[in-house]
Amino acid sequence: MSNTTPRRLDDQLCFAFYSASKKFNHFYQDALKPFHLTYPQYITLLALWETSPMTVRELGSHLNLDSGTLTPLLKRLEKQGWISRKRSDQDERQVNVAVTPYALEKRDEVYARVNNCIDLMSFDGVDYQTLLAQIHQVMGELDTISTQDLIQEA
Amino acid sequence: MSNTTPRRLDDQLCFAFYSASKKFNHFYQDALKPFHLTYPQYITLLALWETSPMTVRELGSHLNLDSGTLTPLLKRLEKQGWISRKRSDQDERQVNVAVTPYALEKRDEVYARVNNCIDLMSFDGVDYQTLLAQIHQVMGELDTISTQDLIQEA
DNA sequence: AGCAATTTAGTTGCACACGATTAATCCAAT
DNA sequence: ATTGGATTAATCGTGTGCAACTAAATTGCT
């Protein structure tokens, strides 16, 4: 109850992630412009190029997105011909999402475009693995904080 | 044109920022629940607690947000009594955004709540300054890539 | 078998985020 | 003094992101 100084550093850490995420999003938006894909749509396709078909739930647990986000996103991808959605015969609650032949045909082109754009960057002073590990550690820490902990002092 | 392998590592870096940003957002959403503030609203107030008044443009350049995002956000903050919006007399194009007495009164309480929630985390294995520096370096690299570079090979 | 609890995807409502456009205002150069 | 260009905030349209809820289907328990 005594600490009334803004945590500049911690705020900066969150703000850094917030800003970096937006910048990356913008970067991919430009890189993927030839395909009319957004970053969330791109990572959805990435997951499906690796494993297809997947149910909406499986996709969601890979991408950390719920059906409220995925359903409209998948409808847009379907409309543009990248994926198909079909209710499972075995369990009619599930919807199987699969890449289309068009998506398979375009896959290498998308990979090449993204790789070429990434090549424009030079991560010289960046220790890639350490950075990734630290981010994961921060995320792990965020996961350990339960909503309960936060609520109890509200 | 030859590299058709997905850049798992780079995708992972972007995805790590993307995921961490969402987790942080959720963390602050919970922490700020007693005040009915979102994270973007909170950083807007942080900026204004430091400098008030500011024009929408000045706020936007601090937070990297444009008027399309800020105008509705500021209207919500105004409606809830945190800020005031008044068109400048000197230059009627500008709108001066200022914290209200209510916001000043609540400031320390918000700081304390955020600090208490951050205290729940332990950034043990994390070298805070190095992490921040690396994130800034990545952001700097993203800034150097101009849209032109990305467009030319589209 | 029958029914309650669970699971799944979809829907709704709200809040960003941003590109593109618009309207009002200011400024600068004639 | 006018006017053309620049600046500023607001607006519009699209696309997430998520909490809360709904409807349908499945599972589990007796």
Features:
homodimer; 154 residues; mainly alpha; Arc Repressor Mutant, subunit A; three-stranded antiparallel sheet; DNA-binding
Question: What does this 3D model show about the protein?
Answer:
Two copies of one chain form a homodimer. The first copy, chain A, is mainly alpha-helical and 154 residues long. The first copy, chain A, has a domain at 22-118: Orthogonal Bundle (Arc Repressor Mutant, subunit A), CATH 1.10.10. Chain A has seven helices and three strands, in the order ααβααββααα. Chain A has a three-stranded antiparallel beta sheet with strand order 1-3-2. The mean pLDDT of chain A is 92. Chains A and B meet through helix 1, helix 2, helix 5, helix 6 and helix 7 of A and helix 1, helix 2, helix 5, helix 6 and helix 7 of B. Chain A binds a DNA duplex (30 and 30 nucleotides) through helix 1, helix 2 and helix 4.
